[in-house]
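Revision sheet: structure tokens.
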Amino acid sequence: MKLQNRYSPALIRRLPAYFRTLIDFYGKDRSRISSEELASAMGITPSQVRADISAIGCQGQRSYGYGIPTLYKTIGEILQLSDKFSAIMIGESHIARAVAETPVFAKRGVKLLAVFADMGCAPSPDALPFEALDDFFTLSRPNIVMIAGNAENAEKTAEKILSLTEAQDSEAAAEIWNFTDATLQNNKIKVKNFHLSDHIMMLCLEAGK
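Predicted:
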């Protein structure tokens, strides 16, 4: 998973919304779209749309707009949706499992290879024991490791993943997705912290306004 250094972080954050919007129009047998239509669907300004699309190397035509298939393909390539990533999950958080098993997850190019019990926990019928992680990791070399167990175990689990990665002759785990309440940081492996409680608090704050 390579960072798209050519594009601003703000643009990268908007690209998935562009992609979803284009899918919508694509499904309506549309072949082109104007900056005004895209802006209205996404809740941003037409000038922002034009700047974003220009930044990814696509050009529109006056009175024609933008070709939807070209935009769709270009954005998909930037988001690496044509690439296939593999993932494993350690721990059995209901939220993380729902995310991993939703069809959208697979459609975006990520295949969940296996679920492992959290450190020190007995596996459910659908999970592998934590002790089986070493051999599985060595053989499968997953791109993503989702940590979804107890927050108390998160740091030790991350250290375990790092040690397994360093034991390989090449980088095995591109990054860790942390679904626990713990905040993980590591200088040697990329970590993304997904704190559901933070999002819920912000949603409640917005609802109360």
